[in-house]
Amino acid sequence: MYIGCFLHNATERALGGTMLYDLRKMTSSLCQDTCSESGYQFAGLEFGAECHCGNRISSPRAPEEDCSMVCRGERGSPCGGVGRLSIYKVEDQLPGHRKFKNVHYRGCFKLPKSTVGTFPVYSFQTNLTTQSCLETCTDKELPLAVFKKPHCFCTWTSSVFRLNQQSDSQQCVGSTRTNQTTASTHTAPTEHHDYQVYHTPVLDSRCKERMFLPQRSSSLVALSSFPGAGNTWVRHLIELVTGYYTGSFYFDGTLYNRGFKGEKDYWKSGRSICVKTHESGQKEIEMFDSAILLIRNPYRSLVAEFNRKCAGHLGHATDAQWKSKEWPEFVSSYAPWWASHALSWLKFGQRLLVLHYEELQRSLIPQLHLITSFLNVTMTEERLLCAQSNQDGHFKRSGAQRSSFDPFTPDMRRMIDSFIHTVDQVLQNRNFSGLPQEYLPR
C-alpha cells in the first residue's frame, strides 16, 4: 500500500534499515518483497533505482511532486526522487508466519543479569518461541535476539558475544525445556543463565559504513576466481568485514548499482582493498603483487556461470536452455578454463592465499580471519559479527529453481574429473591444501 513521499537526505533519513540497488530493473514490488523478506514493515524507493527498508518512518512528508521519478523496471509506480522516498507499507503477515531471510543461529551464551539488563529492548512473553522473539527484535530494528523462556531481549552486536565464549548448545536446549520462571514473575532472571542468540535479518548499522582506502596502496591485491566461483559473494564479505570497497578489473554496472561502488574506480588506483579479476594470462597475473585465489567445485561453478549468462547475477537458466546446444558448447569451452585459471595463478602468482568456496561456507569466521590477515587489515569483533549476521546479503543466488535434471553427461564428467585431479595434484605440490573431498570421490 502506497503511503506517500518523504524526505530522505543526509540529515533526515526516512528509513534506516537495509538498502538494495538495481539501476536497470528496480520495481516497487521487488523493493517491497525484499523488505518483507528482511523483516521490515516499510519499503521506500529513491531515485528510481534504490530500495530502502525500515520499521518506522523518521522524517517528515514531502510534496508528492518531489517523488516524480519512475522505477527503472516498470512504469506507473512512484519511485522517489533526489533525496526523497516513495514509501509503501509492506503487506502485513500474521505473527508467527513471517518468513525472514538471513536469520542465523549465533550460539548459546551464559550471561549475567547485569549484562542482559543493559540490553535496550526487553519483552516478557509467556508463550515465547524463537519466531516470536525474532519478530520482536526485527520490529525494533535490532540485529540480535537473545532469549530464554519467557524472556526476550534485543540488542546490538558486541564483544559480550565473543566468538570463543559460547556455552555448549545443550545448555540452552535443557534450559528451554525446564522453564524455571513462572508466568507471574515479570522480572528478568537472576544470576547467570544460558541464552540462545540469533542474528535477526536487520543489518547492523556499523556494517553499512564503507569507504575507499584512506591512503592509496602501492600494492595491488587480486581477488581472482573462475567465473561462477562466488567472487561477488566474497567481495560482499570482504567489504563487510573490512569496511573498505573492493575494486574490479572490469566494470559491471549491475554490481555498481547493487552497492559495489569500487566498480567505477580505476582498478590500479590503489584505493580498493582488493581487485576482482577472472584473468589468467601470465602478463595479467604479474600485474598484481599478491592474490586471493578463490576456487569452487567446477560442477557448481559451471552451473552458476551458465545461470548468470542466461539470467543475470541472481537468476536461473530455464530447462530449455539447459537442454539446448549452448550448454555442451559452454562446458567444452569453460571446463578447461576452470583448470587453466587455477594452474596459471599457482604458477605465476607472486604471493597467494588459496580459498575454497566450500570452506568459506562451512567455516566462515576462521576463513574471514585468514582473509583479513592476508590483507593486513585489523578487524574489529563487531565487524566480524556484523559480517556473520549479514553473510548472504543480496548477492548470492537462491537455491531455488535448480534444473530438474542432471545437465552433466558421462563424457562431461570424465573431462571435468580429470581437471579436478590435475588441479588437486598441483595444489599439493605447491604445499597448499588439496581440493575439498566433495569435489569428486577419491
How would you sum up this structure, described in words?
With 442 residues, the chain is an alpha/beta fold. Helix content is 33%, strand content 17%. It contains 15 helices and 15 strands. Helix 7 (253-257) links the parallel strand 12 and strand 13 (275-277). It is globular. It starts with a strand and ends in a 13-residue tail after the last helix.
Number of helices: 15
Order of helices and strands: EEHEEEEHEHEEHEHEHEHEHEHHHEHHHH
Q: Output the structural class.
A: alpha/beta
Are there runs of 5+ residues with pLDDT below 50, and where? 176-190
Largest sheet: 5 strands, antiparallel
Number of strands: 15
Percent range for helical residues?
25-40%
How far apart the termini lie comes to 56 Å
Residue-averaged pLDDT: 83
What would you report as the Rg, rounded to the nearest angstrom? 24 Å
Strand order of the largest sheet: 1-5-3-4-2
Shape assignment: globular
How large a portion of the residues is in β-strands, by DSSP E?
15-25%
